[in-house]
Design goal:
41% helix, 9 helices, Rossmann-like_a/b/a_fold, Rossmann fold, Universal stress protein, 2 domains, alpha/beta, UspA, 10 strands, 10-stranded mixed β-sheet
């Protein structure tokens, strides 16, 4: 499907697309999406379950296929009931596709989603992998921002960490977190972290953070500046634990990222290692 709409890059969320595979890996994403829809008074919460389409399986095991679809619809009904308890209305949809990530991207375009919410991996994901292949491809191809939520994460949106290296991709994340600070009064603290690869580049990291802090102050938003030296993914995950962060905001790529890659290696590692939810922001040029 042609991506022929401009998602609400900033501002209130009007359309949230929750993707679930019915496994425990989706538990955190389900809770986060419902809370997000409730807090942002979202007008549309859509819950999508994609069943991988296999032509040979379809012809030889139609009864089994029908049973799986019925189970999927029962799961969506359970999510709908959970949302209703929080006064959130949602619509459940089942799609069949041999490329699950494409079905998710297409639905995001069809629904003009402002954000896609999904788990870090699915029931078919290998635990040795940092992140499931479907999630990685969705982040890379999505027309909007993607919220990746580990299964055990509790996203309250109270303590948020911006991870930035000053690149164009990070600038989009910086804009997002300042806008978020202005529209979300329940946020208790925002920190901005830039990681230097060595002591020689620490001053550059400090300047990057100070620029963000100054920009936020002009908008009446207080941001705590943080810098570190080492591997970015390790420093970010350490900050999440030390500061009790429940959501990290970052771009898809960093300063050294190659645009032909779906996601930069640092972003991928942070998504795979962080105990907190990760909001991945797409740059306007991405």
């Amino acid at each position: 499907m042609q991506q022929d709409y401009t998602p609400h890059f900033m501002g209130d969320l009007k359309s949230v697309l929750l993707c679930t595979d019915g496994s425990d890996y989706s538990a955190g994403a389900i809770k986060a999406a419902i809370n997000l829809a409730r807090e942002c008074r979202t007008t549309k919460l859509t819950v999508l379950r994609v069943l991988e389409f296999n032509p040979e399986f379809e012809t030889e095991g139609q009864k089994h296929a029908d049973r799986i679809e019925n189970e999927a619809r029962a799961h969506l009904e359970a999510v709908r009931e959970a949302a209703a308890e929080e006064n959130v209305e949602c619509e459940g949809i089942v799609r069949r596709n041999d490329r699950p990530y494409q079905a998710i991207v297409d639905e995001a375009v069809r629904r003009q989603a402002d954000v896609i919410v999904m788990g870090r991996r699915g029931m078919t994901g290998l635990r040795k992998m940092l992140m499931g292949s479907v999630t990685a491809r969705v982040v890379g191809h999505a027309p909007c921002k993607v919220l990746v939520v580990p299964k055990d994460a509790v996203m309250r949106g109270e303590r948020i960490l911006l991870a930035t290296d000053g690149s164009p991709y990070s600038e989009a994340a910086e804009h997002e977190i300042i806008t978020m600070g202005k529209r979300c009064p329940h946020i208790k603290g925002i920190a901005a972290l830039s990681v230097a690869s060595s002591g020689d580049t620490q001053e550059q990291a400090r300047a990057t953070v100070e620029r963000v802090v100054k920009r936020a102050e002009e908008e009446g938003i207080a941001i705590e500046p943080l810098t570190a030296v080492g591997r970015p993914q390790d420093a970010i995950v350490d900050a999440v634990r030390q500061k009790n962060i429940d959501m990290v905001v970052m771009g898809t790529h960093g300063r050294t990222g190659m645009e032909k890659l779906l996601m930069g290696s640092i972003s991928e590692r942070v998504v795979g290692l962080s105990p907190a939810a990760i909001l991945v922001i797409k740059s306007k040029s991405a």
